[in-house]
């Protein structure tokens, strides 16, 4: 329970300015960063009274997030002080196919027993051990810093962290050379904004503020999304294309840019590689063909192309929703080429933003996770998106050893990974040894042998980058760890000690990790004083080309439309049995599967719903509000039907991501998704999924 003295900020000048609280007790304000997997990475202002966090607000002085917080994160104290928060280590006492029963144990016992089991497995083959983690916290320290060291030293299997963004990430890298794009505030100056595969109001609120500012100043906003989202409601136009057809739409737009000669020939000649090849492909995508593939009208395609070519500066806010299909990588490549063809990049308010995370790469310390601790030992890589299949695989020369142990942190794979019937069967294997570091008894923790209570963002130190803006943020611990919870870094340090790993890397405390996270050119003093640090970057990054690719050009070579695995046009026999295309985007008040157990937020979302058009409901004799079964050959789950104008005919929306155990029949939307991978980046295809729906 001892916090390092600097973490308490007794010397913080903010202290002096803070008035006494309602109760008369002095209150402290601590600088924080929202840890969640969201492009916004908000700067937080955390108010502490009598050792307890009473308020979490945005920091008004932080330009990128300007003091506004989403509903979810303003409930952070409710989540942290939740009655079901895990406060002690737990050990499972019954079989995994039964409802879980755990007994409370002490930390010494937990660490000793876990280290013993891992050591025994590692003595046979350390690659039988797999870490499983994602972005429950995006912090560099509580993410992979100490965990990476631990698994490198152990020689465990590596995890390919593909579950969210790797198709789009690989596509940006193939096209621009890195995950880079426009700066967020410049959207306020755009004249046209295409909000493409992004429900920004729900999932990227601070971008929306800038887009709204542009709208007030006369910009046109167009939303390109199969679902009529809250964001589509606020745009001038909504184009409800069929899921997975974005690449075709981009080619159709290029067709019109060529036909009307709306091209910036000079920019193309100097800064684009492979234009002739792309031009030939685009000429085959007439507005009529494009419209037929995308489920739009030819006039919608023509009108969008005209707007894109004639309203300048034109900006595209792409988000990861549109790359969760077989052709997601190619679709991102084609869309990312659009601003290179019109020269939109010449203006700082033109271009495209999918991710800004590549801007941080030159500043980060790549050695934070200490790859040298692996000491040349082999490392097989398991794709986190196929964990269902991989847990059920036997040892083989191709695959390597059977997975015998899983250490899960910052993720809830049993709820979020595709094709849950297989994921659950894998986690239920009686011979699998599973340790889960968590705040709550999630669906994944329910299938653990040991559950270790982890600290939340209010209780530990961390440093953050962002994939939406270009600032580095500090998160100081505001209060001592609750109960017996421990930070991920501390847990991995203690496991390392118990396993006899005595390299100096395991003696680094969080303050030392903080100093190592970035290269020397980041001023930590300034960061701690202000709460954030803005990277020194060019205003209009590609006005003169200079993409971070090997040639310095944007690369169009090889980019082409790839149709879905599952759609009416690409799989007609399957579509005859399962005619509805299902997407499963986030519910506004959940953050993936996080916050689903926070009552005030769950009360807003109600229960797991499926949105369906009136036409599709009538055709099936289904009524609004009734319990339905969503199914295909992989599985089925029950939820409430919402007959809704948000759904177009032929497409249904299973809003996510519910904890399975809170679902109507103990399952969620991933019961029906599959484990096939995207064309680039080996990512899952959550939104490339055919289903049928019937009364439950
Ligand atoms: N409130 C909230 N915010 C979040 C999240 C959350 O769960 N809740 N998740 C966070 C995470 S993990 C991420 S990765 C980011 C980004 O997360 P994203 O998953 O990109 O989130 P959205 O902005 O909702 O974008 C998805 C949008 O894409 C649409 N869509 C689905 N399929 C297609 C398609 O084929 N084409 C097109 N054009 N659109 C399609 C969906 O209808 C939805 O409106 O947001 C983060 N922010
Ligand atoms: N069908 C469908 N499935 C999807 C998606 C979809 O749109 N549709 N979206 C996908 C996307 S974009 C993503 S990013 C993934 C997200 O999948 P995950 O990264 O697994 O995200 P969460 O479900 O939010 O689970 C994060 C867990 O980390 C825990 N956690 C948070 N902070 C800490 C910490 O400091 N220490 C420890 N030990 N634990 C912590 C939280 O309590 C939470 O249970 O899901 C994917 N799955
Ligand atoms: Mo994500």
Automatic annotation (TrEMBL):
GO molecular function: iron-sulfur cluster binding; metal ion binding; molybdopterin cofactor binding; oxidoreductase activity
Family assignment from sequence similarity: Belongs to the prokaryotic molybdopterin-containing oxidoreductase family.
Keywords: Iron, Iron-sulfur, Metal-binding, Molybdenum, Oxidoreductase
Native organism taxonomy: Bacteria, Pseudomonadati, Pseudomonadota, Betaproteobacteria, Burkholderiales
Protein name as it appears in the record: Molybdopterin oxidoreductase
Cross-referenced Pfam families: Molybdop_Fe4S4 (PF04879), Molybdopterin (PF00384), Molydop_binding (PF01568)
The UniProt record lists the keyword Metal-binding: yes
Cofactor: Mo-bis(molybdopterin guanine dinucleotide)
InterPro entries for this protein: Asp_de-COase-like_dom_sf (IPR009010), MoPterin_dinucl-bd_dom (IPR006657), Mopterin_OxRdtase (IPR006656), Mopterin_OxRdtase_4Fe-4S_dom (IPR006963), Mopterin_OxRdtase_prok_CS (IPR006655), Prok_Mopterin_Oxidored (IPR050612), YoaE_C (IPR037920)
PROSITE patterns: 4FE4S_MOW_BIS_MGD, MOLYBDOPTERIN_PROK_2
Natural source organism: Roseateles chitinivorans
């Amino acid at each position: 329970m001892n916090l390092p003295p600097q973490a308490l900020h007794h010397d913080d000048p903010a202290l002096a300015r803070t008035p006494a609280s309602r109760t008369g007790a002095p209150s402290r304000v601590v600088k924080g960063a929202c840890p969640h997997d969201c492009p916004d990475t908000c700067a937080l202002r955390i108010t502490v009274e009598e050792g307890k966090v009473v308020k979490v607000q945005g920091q008004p002085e932080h330009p990128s997030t300007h003091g506004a917080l989403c509903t979810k994160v303003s409930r952070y104290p409710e989540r942290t002080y939740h009655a079901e928060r895990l406060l002690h280590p737990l050990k499972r006492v019954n079989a995994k196919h039964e409802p879980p029963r755990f007994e409370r144990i002490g930390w010494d016992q937990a660490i000793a027993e876990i280290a013993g089991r891992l050591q025994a497995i590692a003595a046979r083959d350390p690659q039988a051990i797999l870490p499983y983690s994602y972005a429950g916290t995006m912090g560099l320290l509580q993410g992979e810093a100490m965990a990476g060291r631990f698994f490198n030293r152990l020689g465990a299997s590596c995890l390919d962290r593909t579950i969210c963004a790797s198709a789009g990430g690989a596509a940006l890298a193939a096209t621009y050379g890195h995950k880079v794009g426009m700066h967020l505030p410049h959207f306020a100056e755009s004249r046209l904004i295409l909000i493409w595969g992004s429900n920004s109001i729900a999932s990227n609120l601070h971008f929306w503020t800038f887009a709204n500012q542009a709208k007030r100043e006369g910009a046109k906003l167009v939303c390109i999304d199969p679902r009529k989202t809250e964001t589509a409601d606020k745009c001038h136009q909504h184009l409800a294309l069929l899921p997975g057809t974005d690449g075709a739409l981009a080619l159709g737009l290029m067709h019109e840019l060529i036909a009307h000669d709306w091209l910036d020939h000079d920019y193309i000649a100097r800064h684009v590689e492979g234009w002739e090849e792309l031009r030939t492909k685009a000429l085959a995508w007439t507005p009529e063909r494009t419209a037929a593939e995308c489920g739009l009208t030819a006039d919608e395609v023509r009108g969008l192309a005209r707007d894109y070519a004639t309203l300048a500066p034109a900006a595209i806010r792409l988000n990861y929703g549109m790359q969760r299909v077989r052709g997601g990588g190619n679709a991102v490549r084609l869309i990312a080429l659009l601003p290179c063809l019109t020269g939109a990049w010449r203006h700082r308010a033109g271009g495209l933003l999918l991710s800004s995370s590549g801007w941080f790469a030159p500043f980060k310390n790549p050695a934070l996770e200490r790859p040298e601790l692996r000491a040349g030992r082999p490392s097989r890589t398991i794709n986190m998106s196929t964990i269902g299949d991989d847990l059920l695989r036997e040892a083989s020369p191709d695959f390597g050893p059977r997975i015998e142990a899983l250490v899960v942190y910052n993720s809830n794979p049993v709820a979020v990974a595709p094709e849950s019937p297989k994921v659950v069967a894998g986690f239920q294997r009686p011979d699998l040894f599973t340790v889960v570091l968590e705040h709550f008894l999630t669906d994944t923790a329910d299938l653990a042998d040991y559950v270790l209570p982890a600290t939340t963002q209010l209780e530990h130190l961390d440093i953050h980058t962002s994939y939406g803006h270009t600032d580095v943020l500090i998160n100081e611990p505001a209060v001592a760890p609750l109960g017996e919870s421990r930070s991920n870094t501390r847990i991995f340090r203690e496991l390392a000690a118990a396993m006899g790993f005595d390299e100096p890397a395991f003696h680094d405390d969080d303050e030392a990790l903080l100093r190592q996270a970035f290269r020397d050119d980041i001023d930590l003093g300034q960061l701690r004083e202000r709460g954030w640090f803005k990277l020194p970057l060019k205003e209009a990054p590609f006005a003169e080309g200079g993409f971070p690719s090997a040639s310095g050009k944007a690369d169009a070579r090889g980019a082409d439309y790839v149709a879905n695995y599952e759609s009416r046009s690409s799989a007609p026999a399957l579509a005859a049995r399962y005619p509805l295309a299902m997407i499963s985007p986030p519910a506004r008040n959940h953050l993936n599967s996080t916050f689903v157990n926070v009552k005030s937020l769950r009360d807003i979302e109600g229960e797991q719903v499926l949105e369906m058009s009136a036409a599709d409901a009538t055709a099936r004799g289904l009524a609004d509000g009734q319990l339905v079964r969503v199914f295909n050959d992989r599985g089925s789950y029950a939820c409430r039907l919402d007959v809704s104008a948000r759904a177009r005919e032929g497409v249904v929306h299973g809003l996510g991501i519910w904890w399975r155990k809170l679902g109507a029949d103990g399952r969620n939307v991933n019961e029906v998704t599959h484990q096939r991978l995207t064309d680039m980046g080996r990512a899952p295809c959550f939104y490339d999924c055919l289903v049928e729906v019937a009364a439950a």
